[in-house]
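[agent] plan:
  1. take the single chain provided in the ticket
  2. run structure prediction with default settings
  3. attach C-alpha cells to the ticket
  4. add a short note for the reviewer (M.T.)
[agent] executing step 1
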Amino acid sequence: MSAPVAVPAPATLGRVSDPTTYAQASKRLLRNSLLDGVHDLLTQRDWSKVTMTDVARQTGVSRQTVYNEFGSRHGLAQSYALRLVDEFTEVIGAAIDEVPGDLDAALTSGFERFFAAAALDPMIASLLSGEPNPDLHKLITTEAAPLIAAAKANLARIITRSWIGLPDVAADPLAGALARMALSYVAMPPEVPAPRVAENLAALFAPAIREAATTGSGLT
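[agent] step 2 finished; step 3 output follows
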C-alpha cells in the first residue's frame, strides 16, 4: 500500500517571485486576496450561491473592485482555475524534485499528489457534486484552452528544468498530453484508488519520457 500523500498547505502553493514594482505587488496581493476569499466561501457554500458581492464582503473591498479585477463572475472562476493550475503543477514539480534519478517514483508521486490536491479543492467539489454549474463545466470543456495552455507551459518548464532535463522540442508535446490528461481527471476523477491510477499513468508516461530523452523528440 502506498504511503499517505503529503499535499502542501494552500498558502504555500502557486507562489512565484515577487513583482518588481509596488503597483504589480499591490495588484498581485489584491488578486490573491480575492481568490482566497472565493476559496473560503466555497468551503461554506456551492459555487452557484457565491456572488461577486459575497466575494467583496469576504475580502473587505467594494463590489466594483471585484468586477474591475475579473470583469465578470465567469472571469473570476477562470482566474481561480488558472491559479489552481499553478498550484497543482507546483505540487507535481516538488514531487519530481524529491526523487532525483527515479523517473517511475517521481511520476507516481506527482500524479498521486495531483489527485490528492484536486480532491481537496472546494471549487472542484462544486463542479463534481454541487448544483449544476454550466459555467464551471465550460471552463474544463469548450473553454478549456487557457487552462490547458497554462498547464502545458508549467509542465514543460518542469520537464526541461528539473533533473529530467528533456529538450524543449521533446518536452512540449509530452507536457501537452499530460495537461489534457490531468484536465480529464478533474472532470471525471478516477474510479479506482488514486495510488493505483498514479502507478498506471507513470507506467504509461515514463517510457515516452525515456524515449524522448534518448531520441531528443517527443510524442507525435
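[agent] step 4 note for reviewer: Residues 42 and 103 are 36 Å apart (CA to CA).
[agent] ticket updated
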